[in-house]
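Dissemination and training. As part of the outreach component of the grant, students in the summer workshop were shown how a complex can be specified as a set of sequence lines and then modelled as a single object. The example used during the hands-on session is reproduced here so that future cohorts can follow it. Participants entered these lines:
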Amino acid sequence: DSGVTQTPKHLITATGQRVTLRCSPRSGDLSVYWYQQSLDQGLQFLIQYYNGEERAKGNILERFSAQQFPDLHSELNLSSLELGDSALYFCASSGKIGTSGGEQFFGPGTRLTVL
Amino acid sequence: GIQVEQSPPDLILQEGANSTLRCNFSDSVNNLQWFHQNPWGQLINLFYIPSGTKQNGRLSATTVATERYSLLYISSSQTTDSGVYFCASGGGYQKVTFGTGTKLQVIP
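and obtained this result:
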């Protein structure tokens, strides 16, 4: 158990809908990262937050948005869902106070299926 | 952005055999990690190794940051080692880039 929790574990929805994925980092970690893993794209970095502020942005679509709250949990919002958004979405955390980047620990992932 | 090339892409080993997996980076390495993704999809930390050599049981890793590569050694492989091995670089203020992975199958 990495200490990173993600909910829900599975999500099935329809095209055009909006969903929210939730992540709670390890105790004391200030950074949260979001990743998408689809069969044909491998692991793709979406976005990173550090202590509530966006720190780095990857290949995140405009239909997707994220935020990190004062209690350090993070949410990834996916809207106007398409079939191609079906994937495993991972959250990771790292970075206690005084560190830069550092070792990431991954949650179990949320499997999103868009029908 | 940085490119990460992993080799070999696929590997089949007889139980008990040794292997070396490699990651090559197109630019400076930062916060380099190795992960194992098991058949259930879970990503398990193996090594955080920005430079130098580390060992953990049958696994060891070496990163030569100046030459922009990292190696993962698996000795006396077991069927439970099967899965996909990824390396990744980035974090801090940098985008994180994962390699395409090495799919390992260990047969009894």
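The mean pLDDT of chain B is 94. Students were then asked to discuss how this feature might be tested experimentally.
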